[in-house]
Write a structure and sequence with these properties.
single chain, 5-stranded antiparallel beta sheet, 22 strands, 32% strand
């Protein structure tokens, strides 16, 4: 009896001191959410619910545990066997354990005094407060139904001098109908052509003059004659790009932004006015960034075939540094690999995405930028499932080729480079 009373006293003392207490929202879980989740999971952002407060998070506790346990949240798809990335969103093992134990214990709030200060966000922006916001000059009407060709909108920057950009965020005005956006920058003066990159033969299809005219005649906002160099983009899961210190993207004085908008009707008439936020570099960069697209438009995915591979390749004509890679397919894409092949023939996978998810497209930023020698080949490989087993497949009975619309397909990667030991400039040509 005395032994039982003594044991109970020890347990009481431990509980009273908090030594045996499990994790609480205020003390243990909120810091994890603030560091990893609330950039998206707050009012007005892409996350379907806010997780900033206990009242916000508590109703979703079981769902949070499920997503954390199966690895679908935070979303991350790169194979760790092939590299490390600055923007890796995965939770640590201890953070996962804390969240799962908290939910298992009934998701207690704990003492509100233990809450750390909430992170401060610039209202309406994930990138922080932009130095300038450039928006479409109209509220474009998006119909309730029908297929829309890509729409192109010109937005003057009115920059009187070249600007170096440290960060870019493309923000849809009406997220429900904006499938993706590419923003180009067209300089008023000719820009030197990029010579550091050459592309494999037969990958790009040039439309005939008749096809170009037909597209223009059917489109109330057709593509201009020239697009310019790549500035930024928005796709599901990816709308922000921040460049490392000492690097930045140059926007020439007087440039006009070209917003290429892919709208998807959702059954309700609405309007959209998408905007771009830019954060200027505090000083001219030591190295100027260029974004170079690599794509293969010449392929056919046969109906019913579950595993078709499509490659694209470029060869480096100068020494370069590779900072990031953003692979892109549509709903039949299931896997990606990006490899380098050295001048002496040694191949190395630098990015593997074994379970590509169209809903979460990512610009994978290498933790250690890759210095690649002249003569190196960059090879991208995408695998597609055009069978009925692919639940996202809109029509497994049809062959599929390159096309703009989601039921068509793409094999596209945007690479971010700096060219070593030379002055780099953006190209006046670019397309997807």
């Amino acid at each position: 009896m005395i032994r039982t009373i003594a044991a109970a006293a020890v347990v009481y003392a431990l509980v009273a001191s908090g030594a045996e207490a499990g994790p609480t929202f205020s003390k243990d879980v909120a810091p994890i959410l603030y560091n990893n989740c609330t950039n998206c999971h707050r009012t007005g952002e892409i996350g379907p619910m806010s997780l900033l407060t206990y009242a916000d998070a508590r109703p979703w506790a079981r769902s949070i545990a499920t997503r954390v346990s199966n690895g679908t949240m935070p979303p991350w798809h790169a194979d760790p066997a092939h590299g490390e990335y600055l923007n890796d969103r995965r939770l640590s093992a201890s953070d996962k354990e804390t969240i799962l134990q908290w939910v298992s214990d009934g998701a207690p709030e704990g003492d509100p005094k233990d809450l750390p200060p909430q992170p401060k966000y610039a209202e309406g922006w994930m990138i922080g407060q932009p130095d300038v916001v450039l928006a479409m000059q109209e509220d474009y009407p998006v119909p309730a139904a029908g297929t829309l060709e890509y729409k192109f909108f010109e937005v003057p920057t009115n920059f009187t001098e070249d600007k170096f950009i440290q960060g870019v965020e493309v923000r849809p005005g009406t997220r429900a109908v904006v499938h993706h956006v590419i923003v180009y920058m067209r300089s008023p003066r000719p820009q030197p052509r990029l010579t550091a990159f050459s592309f494999g033969p037969g990958m790009n299809k040039s439309p005939t003059p008749e096809q170009i005219k037909a597209k223009r005649d059917l489109n109330d906002r057709p593509a201009p004659r020239a697009l310019g160099g790549w500035l930024g983009g928005f796709a599901p899961g990816q709308g922000v790009r921040v460049y490392q210190p000492g690097t930045a993207l140059r926007v020439p004085a007087g440039s006009v932004l070209i917003m290429s908008m892919h709208y998807t009707a959702n059954g309700k008439e609405t309007t959209d006015r998408t905007s771009v936020g830019l954060v200027f570099a505090k000083e001219p960069p030591r190295r100027e960034v260029v974004v170079v697209p690599l794509q293969n438009e010449n392929f056919t995915l046969k109906a019913g075939v579950a595993d078709t591979r499509v490659d694209a390749e470029m060869t480096l004509q100068q020494d370069v540094t590779l900072w990031s890679a953003l692979p892109h397919t549509h709903v039949r894409g299931k896997r990606w690999e990006i490899a380098t092949v050295s001048p002496d023939g040694e191949a190395k996978t630098i990015l593997g995405v074994p379970k590509y998810d169209f809903n979460w497209q990512t610009d994978y930023v290498f933790r250690e930028p890759l210095r690649l020698a002249k003569g190196t080949k960059l090879r991208t490989s995408a695998w597609y499932d055009n069978s009925a087993a692919n639940k996202s497949n809109p029509d497994p009975t049809s062959d599929v080729t390159w096309g703009d619309q989601t039921w068509e397909e793409m094999q596209f990667t945007a690479f971010t480079f700096t060219v070593n030991d030379t002055q780099t400039t953006t190209s006046d040509k670019g397309k997807q």
